Amino acid sequence: MLLFSTCINPLLIDLDRKLQGIKVRRNSNKTTAIEYADDITIIVRHPDEIDDIREILQYYMKATDSHINANISRALALGSWTKSVPIMNIKYNDNIKILGFHMTTNSKTSAKISWAALTTKIRAQAQDIYHRPLNLESRIRYVNELILATAWYTIQILPPPLHIV
Q1: pLDDT tens, residue by residue, 21-46
Q2: Full DSSP string of 82-146
Q3: Model confidence over 95-136: pLDDT tens digits?
Q4: Residue 99 domain-assigned?
Q5: Are residues 113 and 53 in the same domain?
Q6: Which domain holds residue 21?
């Protein structure tokens, strides 16, 4: 894991240099990969980028003696992308989870699934605090620092569906 962590930055730089990526907002920097611990999500816009990714990953795997586990890796086809394009023996899914967000081929569906999971989690947290012997100040702090922080995090990425607002 230490070698993986030490070498992750050159991998991300190579991916950023070679891939088109996406821009979340008009004036923002492009995003080509999302990394958390030893999980990496690579954003591929065109099938011809797969060869570049394969080359970068093979170089990286050789340097770190690591491997891609195709059994736990997932791909999601967005837009005009078809599932007929093979991506290094990684199977396609209709729903993948990235940093807590459920991503699907449709942004409204992604928001609906993610917000359903979030509201379930918030209800459970609210039930938990309701049964704790906390004073008013501690309850307010719990709501602000834990429950609302989770909602604000999600709002930054996916707006809530109308039935939640």
Answers
A1: 887 667 778 888 888 877 888 888 88
A2: -TTS-BTTBPB-SEEEETTEEEESSHHHHHHHHHHHHHHHHHHHHHHHHTS---HHHHHHHIIII
A3: 888 888 888 888 888 889 999 999 999 999 889 888 889 999
A4: no
A5: no
A6: 2-93
